[in-house]
Amino acid sequence: MARLLPVLKTMPLTAMLGLAVILIYAATALFAPLLAPYGQAEIVGAQFEPWGAAYPLGTDTLGRDMLSRLIWGARNTVGVALVTTVLAFAIGAVTGLLAAALGGWVDLALSRLVDVLMAVPSLILTLLALSALGPGVANLVMVVAVLDSTRVFRLARATAMNVMVLDYVEAAQLRGEGTWWVILREVLPNISAPLIAEFGLRFCFVFLTISALSFLGLGLPPPMADWGAMVRDNAALITFGDLTPLLPAASIAVLTVGVNFVVDWMLHRASGLKD
Fold first, then answer.
1. Is the pTM of this model over 0.70?
2. Which residues constitute the domain of residue 169?
3. What is the CATH number of the domain that holds 100?
4. pLDDT in tens, 190-200
5. Which of 1, 13, 186, 188 has the fewest CB atoms inside 10 Å of its own CB, making it the most exposed?
6. Alpha carbon distance 106, 165 (integer Å)
């Protein structure tokens, strides 16, 4: 904590705002059962009831409380996106570091496999994979994580290869240190800054991808509250001047902007540039 305070004091206003947004969303996701007035699948009134004292944000197409579903959506949408990002980062970073450290046919095989996966637009490939595997949270997480790990692989491999040719890495190899020792003790600490920043960016892309898939009907299965599906289910209200469908869309946009504010600040610090 003592080391963290000086860093926080140097944060610009945009980064502080982004960090506050992230903390608010995290608290909402963690305490969703306590904050939500109703369950995420509980039908409490008639469909499309207007905003009022009973239902502050009205009800949706099935009569479920919109405020409760927005709160539950923070846990479901953000939680699934975070798990997917962690899995994508684990797959991409490990394979990228191994490709850079081992080289040879391992690097060639992994790089060509990644090139094949990246040759097809990711959204189209995701839709095809989910259509073949069927809906479900596990399938959604696995497909999006595998396809998004290709981007992490490219970054991890490129940054690690720049470090592998340095003198201190060659010295460690001449001492007889193993591959994993070199990766964990010499390479990874020196590429951690761009990888941490990439984690924030990957989370944004995964978050938007899952929301887009939910809007198309291939995301989180009902009755789970999901912001992308909530936009689709309540889109008819826009023709009547009702702003309810814009609330989950705004929730997606605010979190994305907040994470990008923090990532931009982290990249600025990692670059060593002065204000």
1. yes
2. 73-271
3. 1.10.3720.10
4. 888 888 888 88
5. 1
6. 18
